[in-house]
Amino acid sequence: MATQVDYYEILEVTQTASADEIKKAYRRMAMKYHPDRNPGDAAAEEKFKDVNHAYDILKDENKRAAYDRYGHAAFEGGGAGPGGFDFGGGAGGAGLGDIFEQMFGDMMGGGRRGSPRAGNDVQAHVVITLEEAFTGVKKDLPVITRVSCESCEGTGSQNGAAGVDVCPSCHGAGKVRAAQGFFVVERPCPTCHGAGKTVKNPCGACHGQGTVEKERIVSVQIPAGIEDGTRIRMTGEGESGPQGTPPGDLYIQVSVKEHSIFQRDGANIFCRVPLRMGQAALGTEVEVPVIDGNRAKVKIPAGTQTGNNFRLRGKGFSVLRSGARGDMYVQVSVETPQHLNKRQRELLEEFEKEAGENIKSSPEHTGFFARVKDFFEGKAN
Q: Where are the CXXCXGXG motif repeats (predicted)?
């Protein structure tokens, strides 16, 4: 089953992002992947289409609310959500009462009139390495959930489908309505508990529920470039519904382990490289690992300071749903020598004496203490 990534993930925003934050994210992403800025790049063109489609959904309050409620299923089947939700209105579209019922129906005991009660959604968690997030990976997850009972084939009756009748109280609707003043309130049918069916002879294995608890293995394809904390939805992989009703969904929370060498920031990778004082002063060449398993050589010029960054284009992290990659940044940290022997101390003392007579060797040091001197002289005057 193909996995679908959240529209929020495409725009690189959280589900709680404001409309203004979503608009800013869209402008940033659209500019980055616009075909005019990426001529001949099919991956960027596809990403540009995804960004526009995601923004088209999330910029509209109604569409966004439906997406938050139903996920991608809200727009399957010609743009209609579950139960035929039509955002366009007009002739043949959903009226105000229908919209209210579709958006909040479950709070009152179900979805649209006559729709079967679905099974519960299931939450799962998977932890992957940074390398697996870079390449993408397929994971088999053990999930404890409710599945259709094999003994009664999910009907809940020992006699199978022949032992199931339409509920006489709700006539199969699964809910009943009662007038309260000017309002009509819906609630789950107390006879069939929302199933719309009654069972004559309950199955001994599932006690008439039509489902039993069982551990099963679910395979999920985690795409390359996924971020820590992303939630993947697998439609229909949740708990089986009671008495043969549709299953719920499976939501998989993805956590990415911290890495001992790399730090990730979106599509970019950072690698902190400690250098000895002499290496930074004289210049050197270092070999660093790349997240894809290769190696890269970086020339460090003489006089490099702590905090200097060296950029390796295209050596960074995978971009979600794209063949592109970000950049890698080698961050230099100059290490002060420790535990000196006698000869090393003598050499450093000699070096410090020479350096003190050459103001050009440490311009920041010299400039700072010159400003300190002026500061105190100004106070004295």
A: 149-156, 167-174, 189-196, 203-210
Going from the N-terminus, what domains does the chain have, and what CATH number goes with each?
A: 270-336 (2.60.260.20), 342-381 (no CATH)
The answer to whether 235 and 168 have CB atoms below 8 angstroms apart is: no
**64-77 average pLDDT score:** 73
pLDDT over threshold 70, residue 9: yes
- Over residues 251-276, the mean pLDDT reads 94
Give the integer Cα–Cα distance in Å for 174 and 170: 6
Choose between 151 and 263: higher pLDDT: 263
Instruction: Report the Cα 98 to chain-centroid distance in Å.
Output: 32
CA distance 259 to 229: 16
CA distances from 144 to 117, 120, 234, 237, 247 (A): 21, 12, 15, 12, 14
Q: How far is CA 109 from the centre of its chain?
A: 31
User: What is d(CA 359, CA 299) in angstroms, rounded to the nearest whole number?
Assistant: 26
* Helix (H) or strand (E) segment spanning residue 42: helix 42-58
d(CA 194, CA 190): 7
Half-sphere exposure (CA, 13 Å, Cβ side) for 234?
A: 20
Q: How far, in Å, are 226, 270, 287 from residue 295 at the CA level?
A: 23, 14, 7
What percent of the chain lies above the pLDDT cut of 70?
Answer: 82
Question: Are residues 220 and 143 in contact, defined by beta-carbon separation less than 8 angstroms?
Answer: no
Question: 247 and 241 in contact (C-beta within 8 Å)?
Answer: yes
Q: Please, what is the average pLDDT of the chain?
A: 81
Question: Does the pLDDT of residue 368 top 80, yes or no?
Answer: yes
Please check if 271 is assigned to a binding site. Answer: no
State the Cα–Cα distance between residues 270 and 326, nearest whole angstrom: 11
The predicted-structure confidence for 271-296, as pLDDT tens digits, reads as follows: 999 999 999 999 999 999 999 999 99
Q: Where are the beta strands (DSSP E) in 223-327?
A: 231-234, 250-256, 262-265, 268-276, 284-289, 295-300, 309-312
The answer to the question of whether 170 is labelled as a binding residue is yes
- Write down the pLDDT at residue 17: 86
Residue keyed to tokens 């719920």: 248
